[in-house]
Write a structure and sequence with these properties.
The chain has about 500 residues and is α/β, with parallel strands linked by helices. About 40% of the residues lie in helices and about 20% in strands. The strands form 6 sheets. The chain has a 7-stranded mixed beta sheet, sandwiched between helices. A 5-stranded parallel beta sheet has the order 9-8-7-10-11, with helices on both faces.
């Protein structure tokens, strides 16, 4: 059986856009190089779409929506197609996992188990859900009948990040398509390959041409054109808070399209002295920050440990750090891979330098490694003696860097945890049920974990408070973003 390296050598990714059911180059004929962060190899050329291509794709999506080729199908019909879509994703699972790893640098074991599996499950779940959602009848007087119905918004633009390209795309396109919308997806220029392949698989599954379009390109060109487009009804964005603010401004400047944003995070992980399982807390703290090379918006990058157990906790944590040494992403045993590109590598190393300058104490890591490969790798890094005013404790690093802070009582920990513009995830570890509930209520975050981290599935909403964004991905609540509520009042007497 061929190794992952042999499969990678034989892979020929198609970088053309997908518009109206066909692979096409950008009208300008401009392209950009797609390089793998694993070793700098050139994966191919990708279409550099701009406003002209956006106009064409939006027109195709609008035509498909208006003629009812998808929006006019019954929920049961859309369900069958989406379930087939999910089945085909799993059939092509090895190819999709390989594209994800080559494009983004994550370990192949996680591309298979987490990204392909999670994305296919998301598509299937929304397919199953769509014919099980009921409309409403209002409690009106006897001479009236008031119906409250959900309708698709129309043309949905989805702009997704580079850290989980396939999974983030599925969180947007699955509920949007299930509800009957047409979609124009703009993947990150850093990792566009799986999104482009998904469009072909959707067509094979029976999603009609024009219903699902994919435009690779730069955010300032294709992304901005989508946000400003007068015929896009809704935009779903996952990415940085800075760009999310720009997206919302553009939505207001254009047609006041609804804009839903899932943005940055600086999540707090609070470990109290009465933690019921210190080893489990250590494993979660280390594993969650270094998973996906730390390139996760919900990564628990701020670790708050009660002072009385801090030394013991750090000793246990440092013993785990070597397990996350960066390795070859195409090796099935590797658990931490490459940073996505040279720009992000420079950003991460800049934050590590900032930690030194601000007076934090480096306990582990802090260096670029595997330079001989031509790829971008950073050691798992741990800073101690961090305070909440330091840059590494306030800004989202998006790399394998953990900041350790201490506290003397849980109210102090909550105060520090909430002292941030973000509010995506948080966690508290305590054996005291009352303390767990009270702390969870006090933490200003969209998800609060108790005695674990990262526990979730497609049935619960994902999103944040404050500058971590608005709206929610996943769960039935995602339909709220991609549907309109219509009231129909009928006089019957």
């Amino acid at each position: 059986m061929a190794t992952w390296h042999e499969k990678a050598a034989a892979l020929k990714p198609d970088g053309r856009a997908f518009i109206g059911g066909e692979r096409v180059w950008a009208k300008s004929e401009q392209q950009f190089e797609n390089l793998s962060p694993i070793d700098g190899r050139k994966l191919g050329m990708v279409a550099r779409c701009d406003s002209v291509d956006v106009d064409i794709a939006v027109a195709a999506a609008r035509a498909a929506f208006e003629d009812g080729r998808w929006s006019g199908k019954s929920p049961a019909q859309r369900k069958r197609v989406l379930i087939k879509f999910a089945d085909l994703m799993q059939n092509y699972g090895q190819e999709l996992a390989l594209l994800e790893t080559l494009d983004m640098g994550k370990p192949i074991k996680y591309s298979q188990a987490v990204d392909v599996g999670g994305a296919a499950n998301c598509i299937r779940w929304y397919g199953e859900a769509i014919d099980k959602i009921y409309d409403e009848i209002a409690p009106t007087p006897a001479n009236s009948l008031a119906l409250i119905t959900r309708e698709p918004v129309g043309v949905v633009a989805a702009i997704v990040p580079w850290n989980y390209p396939m999974l983030m795309a599925s969180w947007k396109i699955a509920p949007a398509l299930a509800a009957g919308n047409s979609v124009v997806l703009k993947p990150s220029e850093k990792s566009p390959l799986t999104a482009l392949r998904l469009a072909e698989i959707a067509l094979e599954a029976g999603v009609p041409p024009g219903v699902f379009n994919v435009l690779p390109g730069y955010g300032a060109e294709a992304g901005a054109a989508l946000a400003l487009h007068m015929d896009v009804d809704c935009i779903g964005f996952t990415g940085s808070t800075r760009v999310g603010k720009q997206i919302m401004q553009m939505a207001g400047q254009s047609n006041l399209k609804r804009a839903w944003t899932e943005l940055g995070g600086k999540s707090a992980n609070i470990v109290c002295a009465d933690c019921p399982d210190l080893d489990a807390a250590v494993e979660a703290a280390i594993g969650s920050i270094f998973f996906n090379q730390g390139e996760s918006c919900n990564a628990p990058s701020r670790l708050f440990v009660e002072a009385s157990i801090k030394d013991r906790f750090i000793e246990k944590a440092l013993a785990k750090v070597p397990d996350y040494a960066p390795g070859d992403p195409l090796d099935s045993n590797t658990v931490m891979g490459a940073i996505v590109d040279a720009t992000q590598l420079k950003t991460v190393m800049g934050y590590i330098e900032s930690g030194h300058v601000d007076g934090a104490r480096l306990l582990a890591g802090g260096k670029q490694v595997r330079t001989e490969t031509g790829g971008y790798y950073v050691e798992p890094t741990v800073f101690d003696q961090v305070n909440s005013s330091m840059t590494i404790a306030r800004e989202e690093i998006f790399g394998p860097v953990l900041s350790v802070l201490s506290f003397t009582d849980v109210q102090d920990a909550v105060r520090q945890a909430n002292d941030t513009p973000y509010g995506l995830h948080a966690a508290v570890w305590t054996a005291d049920l009352s303390k767990a509930i009270q702390t969870s209520r006090a933490l200003r975050a969209g998800t609060v974990h108790v005695n674990q981290y990262d526990g979730d599935d497609i049935t619960v909403p994902f999103g944040g408070y404050k500058q971590s964004g608005n709206g929610r991905d996943k769960s039935l609540h995602a339909f709220d973003k991609y549907t309109e509520l219509k009231t129909t009042w009928i006089q019957v007497g």
